[in-house]
Design brief:
Helix content is about 60%, strand content about 20%. This is SPFH domain-containing protein. InterPro entries: Band_7 (IPR001107), Band_7/SPFH_dom_sf (IPR036013). It comes from Streptomyces mutomycini.
């Protein structure tokens, strides 16, 4: 909106560079261009202000697909007024000479024109498109169709309007339909998650089974090693017993041989001793064969006395002594007084 000030019955207008001002006085065009600044009298001036900058028009409307499903189309159209003279001639861009406010609503008329045109082409293309296709490829299709339709609309060039860009933000179905459409994908995602969980559990079970098998194999190997150890210990024990038995046999044989040799030697020695004793006895007997019996008795008594215990004193009666002497062939002793 232009900036208008009052000075002594005159008005001064100062516009922005993006606003095209057309000033008519008494039916003649006196000022025409963007960013103007001039003095005028309000009673004789007719002012028009046409914006020439790019403007964004957001729109949202409902449509129905080929399978009779309601969808909402959200789009944005960028446009600008390329011919302010044509626009001012076709639409009411006049402003109040004292306040600078538009007397009508020209931008709303342009928005209605663009929205209805875009909606018409969107409805036309969506009415022949199923819901699933519209949700997948509908954005690009609707955008191309709306851009083509706006470019071919004859009222826009006649009004001095150029469409700069068309953007379709989204095509959304109703909330219930959208939830229903999301259900298979969610179920599939949940199934994938469950399958991942099952696969992870299966891998865990497989790993536990592998660990158990490894432990069992280790135990079996350990038992086999223990069996080998027991067998080896038994073999060693048997070998040790056999070696010990063989050693004992050798030792016993050697001891027996030594005992036999010793017995033989002792027997030989006994025979030698016996023979020597027999020879000595025979010689003794031969030596005493010619001796009288008394002498032999004395020798026997002497030998007997040698083998008797020690006797400190012996008392003999006269009878015994007389008999003994008589045997020995000696005179009897005289009796003592």
């Amino acid at each position: 909106m232009a900036d208008i000030t009052r000075r002594f019955g005159w008005r001064h207008l100062r516009s922005a560079p993006t606003a095209h001002i057309r000033h008519h006085r008494r039916g003649r065009l006196t000022h025409d261009g963007p960013g103007l600044s001039f003095w005028y009298r309000s009673l004789s001036a007719a002012l028009s202000e046409v914006p020439v900058d790019d403007r964004e028009l957001a729109m949202a409307f409902h449509a129905r697909t080929a399978d009779f499903q309601d969808v909402t189309v959200q789009a944005t159209v960028t446009y600008r007024i390329s011919d302010p003279a044509e626009a001012a001639a076709r639409l009411d861009f006049s402003v109040h000479p004292d306040t600078g406010v538009w007397r009508a609503a020209p931008l709303e008329q342009i928005a209605t024109l663009l929205t209805e045109t875009a909606q018409q082409h969107s409805l036309d293309v969506l009415a022949r498109t199923p819901l699933a296709t519209a949700l997948v490829d509908g954005v690009a299709t609707v955008r191309e169709r709306v851009a083509t339709g706006l470019a071919a609309e004859p009222r826009l060039p006649a009004t001095g309007i150029d469409v700069v860009a068309v953007r379709v933000v989204a095509i959304r179905p109703e909330a219930e339909v959208e939830r229903a459409l999301r259900t298979p994908a969610r179920e599939q995602i949940q199934q994938e998650a469950d399958r991942s969980v099952y696969e992870r559990r299966a891998v865990a079970v497989e790993r536990e089974r592998t660990i158990a098998e490894n432990e069992l194999a280790s135990k079996i190997e350990l038992a086999r090693r223990e069996e080998q150890l027991v067998d080896q210990r038994g073999t060693n024990a048997r070998r040790e017993a056999e070696e010990k038995s063989a050693a004992d046999g050798v030792r016993a044989a050697a001891e027996a041989a030594r005992t036999v040799r010793l017995a033989r030697a002792e027997a030989e020695a006994a025979r030698e001793v016996g023979a020597a004793r027999a020879e000595a006895q025979a010689a003794w007997l031969r030596a005493h064969a010619d001796v009288d019996p008394g002498t032999l008795h004395a020798l026997a008594a002497t030998r007997l006395a040698e083998n008797l215990p020690r006797i400190d004193s012996l008392t003999l009666s006269p009878d015994v002594l007389t008999g003994l002497l008589a045997r020995l062939g000696r005179p009897e002793p005289e009796e003592r007084a």
